[in-house]
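Objective 1b. Sequence-to-structure analysis of Membrane or secreted protein.
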Amino acid sequence: MKLLILSIVLLGLAFAGIAIKIWAKKDGKFAGTCASQNPYLNKSGEPCSFCGKMPDEKCENPEKAK
């Protein structure tokens, strides 16, 4: 029973942290780039599914990359 309560509390803290981060960010958007441009995630060298750039090129579509 203690494990269940601890799990629920930890999940609640995680959700609260995410909600606070969204609230604190301008327009409620997370900053970031296309994940497919990460060489560890895209080992086959496929283009970005959002902007079409190759992994060695910079993502130039900030609206879709966020």
